[in-house]
Each structure stands twice: as structure tokens, then as C-alpha cells.
Amino acid sequence: RETAGRYGHDAAMEFAGCWWREHPERASLPERRMMELLREEGQVRGRDYEHIYRAAPRTWVDFAWPQDMKVVEVWGRVHTEEVRSRLMPERAEEARVRDEQRIERLRAEGWYVKIVRSEDLQADRLGRTREQIRAFLNPSHARPEPSRGEFGPERGEEAERYRVQMRLEGLLREEGLRAGEHYARGYHLHPELPPVHFARPEPKRIVQVYHDGPEVREDRGNRQRYEVLGWEVLSVREDADLAPERLGATRRAVARWLGG
Predict the structure, then answer these.
(1) In this predicted model, what pLDDT tens digit does every residue of 19-37 receive, in sequence order?
(2) In angstroms, rounded to a whole number, what is the distance separating the alpha carbons of residues 3 and 203?
(3) I need a surface site. Which of 13, 125, 197, 248 has the fewest CB within 10 A?
């Protein structure tokens, strides 16, 4: 809570996610069973998939394949109506709606989501679950169109901005840089300023990623305030810096900027 209050929710979750990635043995039993299933399928954590991954603003998932925009959420018994009604009867409905909204938020951002319940990882169901995961991860598996659901088309611009950030993160991953280890996402520099996209606290460097030209102009004041606080800012524009002919140079430049 203290870290979240000082640096923001996403930055705190980055630190927590880094700890969980370093200590997979401390994950829940269903998550460990899923890791074992993936290992048996030839999937390597940190190479083929990410564990505890920020897939949308303020939304972290159990397992993610960012390049394919696929997510597997492992739901334990706390997500069942029986346990909710017993442990928190006054908030059971609120918890159910929150789960549904969370999945809808992921789908609205373009992720293909599969939910695996703890009972699906029991011995008597494991074979069927394995086949379902194998099919889910198959590149030829058709992905449905992202659902906009209750969030509506007004989320389009926010989704586009987030998509560009995730595109750059994919390039950084190709350079061997990982969120939570080499840099932080959604990092709060000051309570009165919005969180920055990518930050490396030492040295004090920032990367801001923009979907279009007007965003750069609108953010000029914030960038000046970042610089007053002693941070160096590198701006990356989708239309120019992420164009195919400049992609390699941009990837290397940003990796040097954030990686040392």
C-alpha cells in the first residue's frame, strides 16, 4: 500500500510481479499446476509466456502470451458462487460483477481470454484441460473479434494508446529487457502528474509512447515538468519511430535508453 501510494498502483504491481516471477514456488497450487502443464507442453516461463503480467491498465493476469494477445486466468475456489456466498455474503454479487468486468476489460483491449478453474487442473480433468490449452495456444486457433461490451466504442482511443505501448514493450522484450526488472511501466513520478509509460529510476529516464501527433503536443507541458524534476524524456511516436523502416533503430535506441 505504501509503494502504491508513493509510486502508483501499476508501479507497485510491477514490483510485486517481479517478486512473484522470482519465486514461482510461492504461487497458488492451481497456478503451479498450470506452470507444470505448460512446462510439459514445452512452454518456458519468460521465453514463451509471462507470469503475472500487466495486460491492461490496472489489470494484471496470471499467464500471458503478449505477442499473440492471449491470456489464461486460473481461478481458484474463491471465484465460485458457493465460496463467495459463504465468505463474503454481502459482497458476493459485487465480486461476481467485478470478475466479469475484468474479463470484459481484457477483451475490450484485444486479448483472447481463457479461464481455467482449479477443478480443471485436477487429475481426472487434466487430460481434457491439456488439450484445450494446446488448442488455445495453437497459432492457427482463430481468435474472435475483441468485444467492446459495456465499455463501448469510446474506449477506442485509450485502447489504441495502450496497444502502441504494448508494441514497444514487445520490441524491448526482443532486446532482453523485462518490465519490473529493467524498467517500470505506469510509473508515478509525482502525485500531481499522470503516470509515465516506461521509466528507469536510476538513471532518471522516461520513455513516452504516442499514438499520434496531437498527443505529443498535448503532453508537452507534462514533459517539461518531468524535466524540472530531473528526469530525461525520450518520446517515441507510432507514425514515425515505429514505422517499419525505422523499427530496428528505434528498438535499439530505446533499449539503450532504458537498459543502461
Answers:
(1) 767 777 778 888 999 999 9
(2) 20
(3) 248
pTM assigned to the model = 0.55
SS3 187: strand
pLDDT digits (tens, 9 = 90+) for 150-192: 333 334 566 677 778 878 888 888 888 887 778 887 777 777 7
DSSP structural state of residue 188? -
Residues 118/76, Cβ–Cβ less than 8 Å: yes
Full 3-state SS string of the chain: CHHHHHHCHHHHHHHHHHHHHHCHHHCCHHHHHHHHHHHHCCCCECCCEEEEEEEECCEEEEEEEHHHCEEEEEECHHHCHHHHHHHCCCCHHHHHHHHHHHHHHHHHCCCEEEEEEHHHHCHHHHHHHHHHHHHHHCCCCCCCCCCCHHHCHHHHHHHHHHHHHHHHHHHHHHCCCCECCCEEEEECCCCCCCCEEEEECCCCEEEEEECCHHHHHHCHHHHHHHHHCCCEEEEEECCCCCCHHHHHHHHHHHHHHHHC
Burial class (CB in 10 A: 0-12, 13-18, 19+), 108: buried
What is the greatest pairwise CA distance in the chain?
61
Strand order in the sheet with 70-75: 50-56, 59-65, 70-75, 112-117
Which grid coordinates belong to 64?
500471458
C-alpha grid cell, residue 191: 502525485
Kind of pairing between the strands at 232-237 and 59-65 = unpaired
Q: What share of the chain is helix, strand, coil (3-state, %, to 5)?
A: 55, 20, 25
